[in-house]
Amino acid sequence: MFSTILSEGKFDTVVSAFGPPLQDLKMVYRVGVEGHNSIKMAALQSSYRGPLIIIGGAGSLYYGKGVQLCDDDLFAYHHWYQWPDVHLDYMAIRMFDHSQRGFGMFIRGFKWARSNYENPGWFSWVTRPFAWYLLRTGKTTLTDPDALGLIFCSRVALTMWEGVKEIQWSFLSPPWQLRDKGIRTGQYELLVDDSAGSAEAGIHNGIYNEDMAVAIVDEVENNKLTHKHWTCTGPVGLKEW
After folding, report:
1. Contact status, residue 134 vs residue 110, Cβ threshold 8 Å
2. Is the pLDDT of residue 241 over 60?
3. Three-state SS letters, the chain
């Protein structure tokens, strides 16, 4: 069906933002890999030859030390721990907006526990055991392979396309601190990823969805990133959610 749509649709460009449902974390990786593979096979079996932009995840981006984000030590606990409070606040609100109240409460508890541990006061010593418990729980949760299924299946999606020459594809990994409900400034920095860490800024920074959309539209119009893995960063923190 999808291959027929691609063949007959007369599309200028196709953008794939597929992501598996998150209700059952144990199934996310499998469903994600199979879904991305189905998209790839349908595209190859069609007469459509691109451009095709596939949107994946930040876990595929490389550090300068030659390690991908999702292979870094204690991923993703260590990397959540380094997020600023404002981004944890955003993530919690985002979970509530998507009816994932349990995850939203987990994020708020994680933020509180980190603050309790890093900024001890007189009363915080009373609640310190509970804060340690939340951080230990957070570490277990955020390093659980099932919880990371979406990130790992996105990396598999990238490897599926590497080496494919029949279609003018490019693979976009949004930065690690991607945010929605932002402002479209039209400002962004485009970064092409490689094992030397040329796009490492995407690991440390973010962008609003609204500006990432501008970057995608620019690539649709200019088609300069064929067969490239890329990301983009831009200003964030310009408004509350």
Report:
1. yes
2. no
3. CHHHHHHHCCCCCEEECCCCCCCCHHHHHHHHHHHHHHHHHHHHHCCCCCCEEEECCHHHCECCCCCEHHHCCCCCHHHHHCCCHHHHHHHHHHHHHCCCHHHHHHHHHHHHHHHHHHCCCCCHHHHHHHHHHHHHHHHHHHCCCCCCHHHHHHHHHHHHHCCCCCCCEEEECCCCEEECCCCCCCCCEEEECCCCCCCCHHHHCEEEHHHHHHHHHHHHHHCCCCCCEEEEECCCCCCCC
106: closest CA among 88, 85, 82, 79?
88
Strand ordering across the sheet containing 169-172? 14-16, 52-55, 169-172, 229-233, 189-192
Residue 79's closest CA among 202, 229, 186, 217? 202
Look-up of token digits 């485009």: 190
The closest of 83, 84, 101 to 92, measured between CA atoms, is: 101
Q: What tens digit of pLDDT does each residue of 25-61 get?
A: 899 999 999 999 999 999 999 999 879 999 999 999 9
What residue has token string 């959540």? 80
Q: Identify whether the C-beta of residue 62 lies closer than 8 Å to the C-beta of residue 50.
A: no
C-alpha distances in Å from residue 81, one per residue of 84, 87, 118, 164: 8, 11, 11, 37
Extract the tokens encoding 123. 């009363």
Q: If you search the block for the tokens 């490897």, which residue do you land on?
A: 159
Give pTM, 2 decimals: 0.92
Nearest to 220 by CA among 57, 6, 16, 40: 16
